[in-house]
Amino acid sequence: MGVPKFYRWISERYPCLSEVVKEHQIPEFDNLYLDMNGIIHQCSHPNDEDVHFRISEEKIFADIFHYLEVLFRIIKPRKVFFMAVDGVAPRAKMNQQRGRRFRSAKEAEEKIKKALDKGEVLPTEARFDSNCITPGTDFMARLQEQLKYFVYNKLSTDKMWQKVKVYLSGHETPGEGEHKIMEFIRAEKAKPGHNPNTRHCLYGLDADLIMLGLTSHEPNFSLLREEVRFGGKKSQKRITAPEETTFHLLHLSLMREYIDYEFSELRNHIGADYDLERIIDDWILMGFLVGNDFIPHLPNLHINHDALPLLYKTYISVLPEWNGHLNLRNFEKYLEKLSEFDREHFSEVFVDLKWFESKVGNKYLNEAAGLAAEKEADSALCLAALSSSERMTGEGKGTVADEEEEEDDIFETEFRQYKRTYYMTKMGVDVVSDEFLATQARCYVEGIQWILHYYYHGVQSWSWYYPYHYAPFLSDIKNLSELKLTFDLGTPFMPFQQLLAVLPAASMELLPECYRHLMTSERSPIIEYYPLDFKTDLNGKQQEWEAVVLIPFIDERCLLAAMEPYNSKLTQGEKARNRHTECAIYTYDKESEFTYSSPLPQMFPDIIHCRVRKTDIPMDAWHVPPDHVSGRIDRSALYFCGFPTLQHIKHKFYKKKSGVVVFQQSSRGENMMLEITGSDAETTCDEVAAQTVGKSIFVNWPHLEEARIVAVSDGETKFSLEEPPGVQRVYDRPSTPPPTKVTCLSDKEQKDWLKDVQGITEHYLKRKGIFVNECEVLLYGQLLTGRKYVPKANGVVELEKQWAKQVLPFAHQTVVKDIKAFYSSLTCFTSLDELFPQTTTVFMVGNPYYGAMGEVQDSSDVIKEGRVRVVFNVPHEPQLEPLIQNQHKYCVKYSPGYVLASRLGITSYLVSRFSGSIFIGRGSKKNPCGEQRANVGLNLKFNKKNEEVPGYTKRTEKEWLYSAAVEELLAEYLDRFSEVFNTVSRNSHDDVFYEDDIWPGEDQNGAEKVAEITSWLKGHPVSSISRASCDLQVLDSAIVERIEEAVEKTKVKKSTRKVRVTVKPHLLFRPLEQQQGVVPDPDAEYRLFDRVVNIRESFTVPLGLRGTVIGIKGAEREAEVLYEVLFDEEFAGGLTIRCTAPRGYRLPPCALINLSHGARVDHTSHKLTAIVKPQPAAAANFNSNRQLGGLNHSPRSPFIPTQVRPIQTLTHEERLYQVIAHYWEYITCIDIIVCVYKSADSVYLCSLQASVSSIRLLKKNEDPTSIFPPQNATTEFEDLIANLKISKGSQQTPPPPALPQASTSQSDGPLSPQSFAMVSVGVKSFVFIASILISFFHDYVLCYAMLCYVLFCSVVSVILAAKINVPHGESASPIAPPSANFSNAMMGSKVSELACVCVGLGMTPPDFSFIRSRQGLVVCQVKLSNGLMVHGPQCQSENDAKEKAAFFALQRLAFCIHQPSRIRTLGLYGVKRFGN
């Protein structure tokens, strides 16, 4: 089978087949089967190109265990977990195994020799020989014992494993792993009580698993495999950690429907005789013709040359003429029709052949074959052998001449000669007789028959094999109808017999010592089967791994006879390995208990309390008679969640080359395109809203997901749910209609709607091959995340669906309503005592003890009152506050490329080039030698992949930044190999540079220099540092190291305390299978340095282990966000994410409780909280709660929007509040620490932005005017200015009015104008705030400038705001009145905001001008006195254009404020203005 070409071809032709595995939406599976050899190879030799790679057996076993755990956790099988290791294979498979192992040994030897020739020093430890992954070796015997230990351990300790039956079919059980799995499936299916809706998942890397899965005819069957990346370099290291691996699910349920579409034309020809199940069987047979593991592919039939579409087209053309489907007689007719391809292919090369003959004077495609033919018959065209067996014996020259005269068709003559050449050169025969061709045809058809039996019924003969390296031509496979094909079952080889049959001499150490000499001794009777050198033949293929390995086939009788004299010399241990054993089934048995000894005690401990029962299964227990017929079921009315289907939505299909992108690049062949047709009746927005808003439907056809619809829009009008915050109710009863409001979309919202439509249609077309057509209505919904038990009255609990907070858009054409979905029967609790029985592990999601893990105690006396008694463990937390405040000391400092260039004395171009990739080829630019290229760049940045190397490079929106480590690395590079820099500098436009151009001297060896550079780069620590996405927020390694130190200091104290409390059940979170995907606290916000705890059970990270967030990886969907966590303890499977030990891991929000979030919302906390730069929002265009939009708005702003009142009615503290709140989005661009001190009776907010020294809470319903008596506008304005004025000389600020006693009541919400009263702003407040800033920034001038500048902006804003609203007739302010453009309310116009900011910065008011296009659209241009010029977007009116342009100008000014150097300049300028 063309692997991975078949997988790629099938995935691109049918684009919806596979999808990326997303943990929150994996379908439920009953059975999980693992083809173990793929995992073993992945964990033992991940990169064969690296000859320096070494790994211990202990590490291999640990990695395999971890891989199995992750796969089990991803799929979560409910009934069966089947692990199958390849045992002794049928003889037909051994020929391919033999070729692979010989080639593997030869390639390894060549790579080692090449490395030694370059002068590389290889490790002294022995290299892992991948050929040891063969039944019967010492390694496989040890692995089998380790797998048994792993099964015993998981069943004894893991609750999820205890619910399933575990099958382990090891290397001692004969048969290939995947075929042992299929044997089990066939046996289960043949049982009378088999559930036809059983859901299967098969993991494996072989592409023919697609065909194996289809042979089962099971409707719910999916394949799990690692992501395949095409177009990359062979030398790229494979990702071995399963956490880093992207997995794909390929759904055979969709494959069945796509096959139905592929052959739908037959429905019109054969009508009622059309049977999809028979079509699928024939499709599988056609796949065998392009080659597989047992027979070679037919000549010129290659997958990448559209062989499969040719096979399908031929099948469609001939099937209507048959009586039934494929049988031996019809198969001959099919091949006869298909043989026309042989002639068509030859006709394409015939012209080239004649041209070649005219040039070289040789009349044969292959000169050697032609000469052999002439020698045989003394003739240039000895064709008689192909037409008559009598004339093939070598008649005289004249007979052939007569035949040539009778031959009128020159084309046929050349075609037959072409085939003759193939047989003579490929198969080494001297005479191509009719008997030879008949034997070829029989062997090939016999091979097809054996494979069909093998796939559908199991092994029919252990000893049969195809005896040739090549297949015959299609036109020579004939006279089949009378063939009688029978097979002798025989017995499988013993393990040592297979070892000697498939291993090369280079791997003889894997054999028992008594057999080794048979591979190397010249006296060995089988020495001819172990050539030290051999040839390979691509035979029309392109990749070396596809080449035919030309080694002799093992003669079974000779092999067994040669081994016989030495069988008695085997040791007892070797005899124990050389046997066949049964498969075993393992189940959890709580009644039994014993100690299981570890086979590797230094690595894995003994299992003290082992509770496992083992049962052996006879080898023939799963044999099913070939004539057994399984029943079928009509499942059209039932939808199994997670299994995609093309049903439910009307569409049409056609094949077209559309360039669908499935594997990182556009496909080249035809794609099966789907076009949604929908209903004829027009659908209006209000009709869709009435049917869907507030209801649960399925979205994202054909990969359906359940979602709750919260809004519907047609681009002009929006119907949306009107619910209180936090409510996520489904309104599925007619008696309770959803509360809906109707609004008209603004211009910006209409543009967002168009972007959503465009994004959806492009994704469907380019990725799924689905044409959505015109999208008139969008639905906005929240995806289902899981189910959660919710306490009700009288101790009752109900399992309710939980929905994501994020709202996503969906096209109305791609949603499905009113379908019956199947959900598994999960363990269902109905009461609190069932949900929280004694000894249950729970977590606290309320204060106090937020996030603490506890154990439920006897609650019988309080459960009726709706409470649960729990004992919580409250460990001592590490003190990270000092590290948060001083993180700037440990952060890596980054500089632009030109800064590094100036320090190094080179150009910034060289910094940019050498930090990326630089390729050096052999030879010179004028005379290159081959295509081999070496990459001598530092590989520290990756533009296309948007990746950087933490600690070395960082990408911003405009440029790349580099650390001092890059400077040191470049300086060393420049010192060692300056000639490379010189060459790159002189030839800046070249993509590839050449050895002879860099080192032109005769005494200079360019190849040695390149090897020296690559060796130096490999030896540098930077080569082992993993790269990260540029969108990832991370803490540098130095800070992570300090966190580790803080955690270790805390461990010394060991001050965990136990607390016994009685808790309301809604504050408890119990880890349950039903709740996988449910976020414990949806309101939690994550920041770097946050402390978290893992709340997932049966997970790689131990339950209840605490850690610190050191990285945040954003995603478009909130469920796909990942947090990098540095845990407090090491654990098996931990990752080294910028840390010294394997204690890191990446987890989604549903796996964590944020302890720091609990501390932030706990008003009794006295801790200093660091508010870092807010993380970017998800990249969704729609947000149900768009609040306080603007530049970098802090999610923790203490200001919230309130009801707008006329500014004349506001008190002076309320005016100041409005100004600060309004400009908060610009002020927070400075990213200043906000210091919050909370106590039981008051909250004090000391922040640079607000410039407020102290704040107290008012009592409930307390009127602010009781503290500040109402005054008229003029006096109020003057008092406000007096309070804000800085004292000059000995002048003192008037004392504030006396304040009443602070109330002890505490407010739950954020601060508002009514919840605080300003006391004073004077010199003391400046000193206090400045001291905080200085302690953080360590720059007195910068801090003072920032403080004065922001205060100045706020004061000017208040002055202007007050002045604008002074009633007519009152005294004018010394400041000039504003222009007419400022007549609108202060908070409602971006134009007025821009004017205020300009005045505050000491600039003249902005100058606005307009440009009108031919279409009548207006563009506004803003010109500021500092030289800044900004253009706005095209708008319909001048007012809109002016507002948009003003907003853009404010953004640009805010960016200027963000630059520290400009803060200092603007701040000092602000001091000057303030003094004036």
Automatic annotation (TrEMBL):
Its EC number is 3.1.13.-. It comes from the Eukaryota. Signal peptide: none annotated. Its main location: cytoplasm. The chain crosses the membrane at residues 1315-1334, 1341-1362. Residues 1289-1309 are annotated as: Disordered. This is 5'-3' exoribonuclease 1. It comes from Sphaeramia orbicularis.
